[in-house]
Amino acid sequence: METTPATTRSLATEAVHAGREDLAALGLHAAPLDLSTTYPSHDSRAEAARLDEFAATGAQLTGPPVYARLDNPTVARFEQALARLEGTETAVAFASGMAALTATLLARTAAGLRHVVAVRPLYGCSDHLLSSGLLGTEVTWVDPAGIAEAIRPETGLVIVESPANPTLAELDLRALAHSCGTVPLMVDNTFATPVLQRPHESGARIVLHSATKYLGGHGDVLGGVIACDEEFARQLRQIRFATGGVLHPLAGYLLLRGLSTLPVRVRAQSATAAVLARRLADDPRVTRVHYPKLGGAMVAFEVAGDPHEVIAGVRLITPAVSLGSVDTLIQHPGSISHRIVAEDDRRTGGISDRLLRMSVGLEDAEDLWYDLDTALSARRSATRDLEETPRPGGRSPAPEPARR
Ligand code: MET
Q1: 345 contacts 127 by C-beta, under 8 angstroms
Q2: Do 280 and 289 touch, CB atoms closer than 8 A?
Q3: What is the pTM of this model?
Q4: Atom of ligand 1 nearest to the CA of 336
Q5: For the chain, which terminal residue's Cβ has fewer other Cβ atoms within 10 angstroms, N or C?
Q6: 170 near 294, Cβ under 8 Å?
Q7: ipTM exceeding cut-off 0.90 for this assembly
Q8: What atom in ligand 1 is closest to the CA of residue 97?
C-alpha cells in the first residue's frame, strides 16, 4: 500500500509520524532513547575529517554520532518532527527556550550584527536578556509600526511574540516580516504552537519555542527549539557545540512523544479557554479579559480586587508559573514571569499589576469555573460575612458542578 507523501500530510498526521518514519524498518514501534555521551570509533582519521567538516560547516554529522554535545539521534528526531510541524527546513534544539534565544543572539553578534529591534511585551526573561545587554547586544524597543525606522546597518534581528506573553497581544506577522526587509524576523511561537499559527508561512525566518510548554505538554520537561532554514541552523549547531546548551536526550524523547498529542491537546484546551474567557468577560469582578482572536489555551485577565487573593484562593488550579501543561496553572506576571522587567517597562508592555495569566489545561470547564469563581470571591465573601454586604453584581453563587 502506498503511503501519503509527506508534503500532503495534515498537521495531525505529521504530529504522530514525523521523525519516526524509519521506525518500522528498524523493527521498532516507539522511538529509541539513546543516552550515550560518547560513541566508539577505531578510525581516528575519519573522525578527524568529520570533526573538521562540522567545525567548518555546522552541517549535521552523517554516520554514527561522535559525542553528545555535537548531536544525538533521539534529539534529532524531535528536531525533524518540529521542523515539519512549523514548515521549516530544519530545527535545532536546546536545553531551554532561553538557551535557544541566547544561541540566536550569539549567532547574529558573531556576524557583526549586535543590534536588535524588539516589540514589547516579550516573556520577562527574554526582555531582560535584551535590556541588560548581557550578551553584548543593544536593543531598540519599538511599536510594530516603528520597526522599519529602527532598523540600522548593524541590526541582526527583529524579535516579537504573538500572542505575546503575558498580555496575549497579537501582531500582524505578515506585515511585520515586510517591515523587516532583509533583517530576519524571529517570532516566539510558544503560545500559539504550530497548531494555531505557523510564522514561517508569514515570512518569519526564525521561529522560537520554549518546548517546556505546549510541545512537551505535561510540565515535566525543560527545552527550547529554533525552527529555521539550514543555513542559520548550521550557525546554531556550531554555537550549541561550542557553548554546550544541548537538550538532554530524555527531554528529546519526551518532546517527540509530546508532539504526537499536540494538536488534540491544543484544540481541547483552547475550547475550554474560550468558555472561561467568555465567563470572565461577563463577570463584574473582572475589569478586562485578554483572549487572542487566534484562540489558544491562554487567558489573561485583570481583576477589580487584589490579584494575589485570587492566586491564594485557587484549589483545583495550580498557582504556578509556566504554561502549556495538561493541568491549569495561574500566575501573577508582575510577581513572577515578568518580575525581572523594570516596572516602567512592564507598564509600556501593557502588563498591569492587576493582571493574572492562566494556562488552561484539560480539566472540565465547569470544574475550572467553579474554582475560579470561588477564588475571585474568596476575599470578598470573607468581607461580606463580616459586613453582610451584598455579593458583587448581585449574583447568586455559582452552583457546585455535578461530580462525574
Ligand atoms: C521563570 S518565569 C517564567 C517561565 C515561563 N517562561 C513563563 O512565562 O511562565
Answers
A1: yes
A2: yes
A3: 0.93
A4: 2
A5: N
A6: yes
A7: yes
A8: 6
